[in-house]
Specification:
The chain is α+β, with helices and mostly antiparallel strands. It has helices at residues 7-47, 151-157, 168-177, 182-211, 217-244, 252-262, and strands spanning 55-62, 68-75, 80-86, 89-91, 94-96, 98-108, 114-118, 122-124, 136-138. The strands form two sheets. Strands 1, 2, 3, 6, 7, 8 and 9 form a seven-stranded antiparallel sheet that branches. It has a two-stranded antiparallel ribbon with strand order 4-5. Helix 5 (217-244) runs antiparallel to helix 6.
Length: 263
Amino acid sequence: MEAGRSIARILAPLVAVALLLTALLVFAHDRIAPKAVEARGQVDRALDDEAGRTVSRVPHVRDSVGNVWSIARWDPLQQAAEGVRAAPFRAGGREYDLLEVGRMRFRRGPDGRPAWIPEGGSLLFPAGRPTGAGTVQAVPAGVPLPTDLAPADIELARASEDVEGLSSNRLRRLRDRYPDLQYLTVLLHRRLTYPLSNLVLLLVGVPFVLRGQGGSIFLSVLAAIGVCAAYFVADTVACDFGGRGVLPAGLAPWIATILFGAA
């Protein structure tokens, strides 16, 4: 500044770095972190013994078309489910009273896409069919089941999945599937608001430091740190209220960003 450079010219590199960090955080949170969480989960499952890796009493899981899946036993290492039931079961515009599969595994189907491959099972037709109630049709072994249920959905149901480590696409799927869970919407919006805090806090905090040139720079830095602390407190409280339904889940994560960004 003594050399005659304007404040805008001096701060331009800092703002550029803040924008770069924001973009890197968005990319890392959406692409790198989910892979790291999955790798950690694979290590944890590999360290478990054979007897301890199978989970029983898995909570009911819902897919995107509303099928409610009941799973008696779940092996996350083999991605195999046993004692599977869905009542009713909807697929291809048709509805069945019951789907029962003794065992199914999440593998790549004939088309190369991941799917649930059953080892046999049965479908119970509804009572309104001409053949009468109780008609049973066998589920072909090796033919993928028509559902978008994913192993991550099962892990989420049993509360062992790190939800914050999911990718945005998977988190959006879970949000659409479980609209009553407000915190999923909050987490989805925070994928943008949290990285933006770099830029917002830079623009809010730097003026405090510049004001301190004629007085105590130490007090000015403390004031800037206090503003940053206030931002994170406001963001935490707003997101908590959004997850509880006190505030709209889509607005709560943006409140601190909007208020401090406007300032």
